[in-house]
Specification:
By secondary structure, the chain is of the alpha+beta class. It contains three helices and twelve strands. The protein has helices spanning 24-40, 43-64, 106-135, and strands at residues 147-151, 160-166, 176-187, 190-197, 208-213, 219-223, 227-241, 248-249, 255-257, 263-272, 275-288, 295-299. Helix 1 (24-40) packs antiparallel against helix 2.
Length: 322
């Protein structure tokens, strides 16, 4: 009687290898997380997140689509199995038997890709509205129309006028804002104005004129858009000061003392039919020179306490439009 040998029922049959685990999905997830964090914290983190997402996403897609491109995935060596005593040695030469060939299942691959695609689509449909309501509101419907603060003749040359206006007349006095306006005369046949914001760039307190306002000469006028503008001339201005924490600025808005980190913000302006219109505000690191000849180092509007130049300016969150 022949001795009984235990036979592996799967012996001689090919085994399809599962895809090799990779780190690409992990890197992709880290990139997405960096993008979300960067939208709140810093442009640098946002850029790093975009780069990581692009690199790992490409590598992940390349591996996932390898079978469709006719490329073989790198095979893993099968673990060696100890043969029972008395089992003949495996054949090491010659062609493999036909039943040992690896069988592919293109239909299963198609179903796998379809499932992944539908899952990704559902994820986008579910996530996009949430991201839209979370991220988009600060970036839309911002700003305000140009504010008519009076005729050019209402602003005497080389003297500051305190102009208050309603940012949104429909909201009433709660939207009243203040600008310090000085007529610098003409530069290349065009009117030149210095228009400073009264918001201290330390913590946002209202900055005051270091001089005597002529309240008796104040004029109030209703301008375009039902805006109510009040103009108060000043006898002389030796600069501006913040009553909250002692910040001091010169007549060009440059910081001269105290905790502010940059110069006062300024207004864009234009002249239309002899009227002075205020536009959006922008930030200034510092100003060289004075009056119409001043060289203004401008930046996108930043919040109080934020640096706008140098390495410190890279450490602050991305600011939405205002």
């Amino acid at each position: 009687m022949n001795p009984r040998h235990d036979v592996d029922p799967h012996e001689g049959q090919g085994t399809a290898h599962e895809p090799t685990p990779t780190i690409w999905p992990v890197g992709f997830a880290v990139g997405i997380a960096c993008i979300f964090v960067g939208l709140i914290i810093s442009k640098i983190v946002l850029v790093v997140g975009v780069v990581l997402t692009a690199i790992f996403g490409f590598l992940w897609i390349r591996d996932a689509t390898r079978p469709f491109r006719g490329e073989e995935a790198p095979a893993e060596p099968e673990p060696s199995r100890a043969l029972p005593p008395g089992t003949p040695a495996a054949r090491t030469s010659g062609p493999d038997p036909g039943q040992g060939e690896i069988v592919r299942f293109p239909r299963s691959k198609f179903l796998e890709a379809t499932t992944l695609g539908l899952g990704g689509l559902i994820g986008v449909i579910v996530t996009a509205p949430v991201l839209g309501f979370t991220v988009l509101p600060p970036f839309i419907k911002q700003g305000h129309p140009k504010i008519d603060v009076g005729a050019i003749e209402d602003f005497p040359e080389n003297k500051f006028v305190i102009a208050t206006y309603l940012l949104k007349p429909e909201d009433g006095e709660v939207s009243r804002r203040t600008a310090y306006i000085r007529n610098n005369g003409f530069l290349d046949e065009s009117p030149s104005f210095t228009i400073l914001s009264n918001r201290c760039v330390h913590l946002g307190c209202p900055v005051q004129v270091n001089g005597l306002p002529l309240d008796d000469e104040a004029k109030t006028e209703k301008t375009a858009g039902d805006n109510v503008v009040t103009r108060i001339p000043t006898a002389a201005a030796a600069g501006f000061g913040c009553p909250c924490h002692g910040g001091q600025y010169d007549t060009e808005g440059n910081r001269t003392a105290g905790p502010p980190v940059r110069a006062l913000d300024r207004y864009q302006f234009e002249i239309v039919d002899g009227r002075l219109l205020l536009g959006q505000t922008f930030s200034v690191s510092d100003v060289d020179g004075t009056g119409a000849e001043a060289k203004i180092h401008t930046y996108r509007l930043a919040g109080p306490g934020q640096h706008v130049d140098g390495p410190e300016g890279w450490l602050y969150p991305v600011q939405p439009p205002r």
